[in-house]
Amino acid sequence: MARTRAAASRWVDPRLLAVLRAQQNHLPPSAARSANVEMLARGGTAVVATGQQVGLFLGPLYSFYKAASAVAVARALSAEAGVPCVPLFWLQTEDHDFAEIATATVADRRGVATRLALAPESAAEARVSIAHRHLGAEVDGLVERLADALPPGVAADQTLALLRAHYVGGRSLAAAFAGAMATLFADEGLLVFDPREARVGALAAPIYREALRGAASIQRALWARRAALAEAGFDEQIALRDRCSLLFFHRGDACGPRYRLQKEGAEADVEKGGDWSLAGGGETISQQAIEATIDGDPLRLSTSALLRPIVQDKLWPTAAYVAGPGELNYLAQLGPLYEHFSVAAPLAVPRARFRCLDARTRRLLTQLRLTVGDVSRPERELHAQLARAVVETAGPNSDAGPDPATLRARVSSEIAPMVDEIARLIAQVRPELAPAAERTRGTVAHALGRLVDRYTRAVAERDGVVRERLARVKAALVPDGVPQERAYSWPSMAARVGPSAFTGLVLSAVAENPFATELRELHL
């Protein structure tokens, strides 16, 4: 509560508000969004932020869940603290990893994962920030392929209509993503913000300058935090790079390839105002030249993953940040940076996590006598569950064979004690054979266990119908072993019920507990 009120007391620079207004004016109209902008302009308003790369067709489902979580958390904090809170989605357009955002996967009409991909980037486009990348003519064909893959019906037609309105050849990836996301959350007033703008760069310039000048002390503080986290048993999420600043420099102009700034000499040289190299770019540039660029053309600088949250929370009155599991880990690294830049760290809130089940998947689970949680169990346990269902369904007079669980129980209650007794007697009479008797006892137990495991798997897989049903359930919930929210993109679920209905289902579920951490089921 105190953190939210403290954030709401911060002043937002009018120049930043002008950028925000201009960007929202390029989005589909929304009275709620306009009202949220004006609340920020009046002051006394906090921000609940989240963000993600601008993936094709809104990217993986978790991007959509992040936006819904930001809406719900803003409402919850506002009610708790008694001050207005508005949700803001920060487009991570400074990144240059095109391959990470260029694909979208959906479950087709048969439930098979279908991957769609933009044309590969050219050599000239490599390392260029995503903000300056545009959709090619092939996107129209991808939408048509998506139409062929999705189950036909009104819900799919509505989903495709929304995507056709925003994913148009020649439009930037950021604009397409922003337009689609803003449409879905128009009634909730979700603000969508792109930091890759000259006026934003000018506001961030003091942060860039300090990141450059204070590179040595920042580096030492981050190394110390890494050591403390390692001692506490936590892994480093974002690897620290020796002799590097937290800035990237864009060669040529703001639309040029970006390279991390790295000192050529020993660590001590980071404290000096000498030359920096463009790591991997084969070029050096003096500190004076970089600082002159920060003053004159700040968009030729961009942030690393560690510096981006500092810029976000320096610019906006951020009360909370909605983060994915990986982000929560690397946010733990950032304490020294918040201290160095005198920024109050926001509350870190885990994003909502869902596993969507349509009617077909629920029916298959019932037929297999499995729960949703069973699908993620170890293979041995899952096979045992399925084998038991096969035997029970077949009945006592079938040739399905004995229940594997019964066999495992007999090995434990009858055979294992007999083998133990024989090994004990031999060792008692001939002590020199005790090691051999112990090894044999272990070998017999292991062999019997493996035999029962093989039998269990054979029973579970003998029935072709069972195999097919299980494969379809896994394809729906954990395709290729990947969690559904990471494997499938937004259209995969929206096309089952419609964009508005899917948004409403997710928002209602998140609102029940905006701060929940468990994976929840969502029935479509």
List keywords for this structure.
alpha/beta; 22 helices; 5-stranded antiparallel beta sheet; about 525 residues; about 55% helix; 5-stranded parallel beta sheet
Can you put this structure into words, describing what you see?
The chain is an alpha/beta fold and 524 residues long. The chain is built from 22 helices and 14 strands. The protein has helices at 2-8, 14-25, 31-42, 61-81, 98-101, 138-149, 154-166, 173-184, 198-213, 215-231, 287-296, 308-315, 325-331, 335-340, 359-368, 379-394, 404-429, 434-462, 464-477, 484-487, 490-497, 499-512; strands spanning 46-52, 85-91, 103-107, 113-117, 191-193, 244-250, 258-263, 275-278, 283-286, 301-303, 318-323, 347-350, 353-357, 519-523. Strands 5-2-1-11-12 form a five-stranded parallel sheet, sandwiched between helices. Strands 9-8-7-6-10 form a five-stranded antiparallel sheet. The protein has a two-stranded antiparallel ribbon with strand order 3-4. A hairpin with a 7-residue loop joins β6 (244-250) and β7 (258-263). α4 (61-81) crosses α22. The chain is globular, with a radius of gyration of 28 Å. The two termini are 35 Å apart.
